[in-house]
């Protein structure tokens, strides 16, 4: 009986030492999530732009029915441009909230643009990349070639 008491006493002392005796408690690690997030997530978007004389996309009435492209805010955007027209065309995102002059003059009004792909010759294809605006909202897209806006326009929705 005495021997059993001794064993129980030693065991409890050992347990106390293991649990509470340590001066610097080791923090319990947080539970490991089942799906670990990647170190850096790159949000990307690809936009297809078809250019005609003188409108974007399928509907020739860009004023009443402007084509819409979408991109997440701050995303790396790849723009695949295809000029199927017989004239030069551009695809340019206008800064948010600016008043666009009619006609848009590519030389004088460049500072109103957030980004432009650059002028494509008739029949030319090109791929360009830019970083989408960090501010969500609706951005006007225009062709900067003199006289093509407002006939040739669209919208970039930043989400
Ligand atoms: Cu154009």
Secondary-structure map with pairings?
Layout: H1 2-19, E1 44-52, E2 55-56, E3 68-71, E4 76-83, E5 92-94, E6 113-116, E7 125-131, E8 137-142, E9 153-158
Parallel strand pairs: 1-4, 3-9
Antiparallel strand pairs: 1-2, 4-7, 5-6, 5-8, 8-9
This protein binds copper (II) ion (CU).
Entry keywords:
elongated, mainly beta, 9 strands, 159 residues, four-stranded mixed β-sheet, binds copper (II) ion, single chain, 11% helix, 1 helix, Immunoglobulin-like
SS content category = mainly beta
What is the count of β-strands? 9
Distinct compounds present: copper (II) ion
Compute the gyration radius: what is it? Answer: 31 Å
Quickly give the CATH architecture.
Answer: Sandwich
Strand order of the largest sheet: 3-9-8-5-6
Low-confidence stretches: 4-22
Number of structurally distinct domains: 1
CA distance, first residue to last residue: 76 Å
Largest sheet: 5 strands, mixed
The protein's oligomeric status is: single chain
CATH homologous superfamily assignment: Cupredoxins -  blue copper proteins
Give the class-level CATH name. Answer: Mainly Beta
The string of secondary-structure elements, in order, is HEEEEEEEEE
Taken as a percent bin, the fraction of beta residues is: 25-35%
User: What general outline do the C-alpha atoms trace?
Assistant: elongated
CATH fold-type name: Immunoglobulin-like
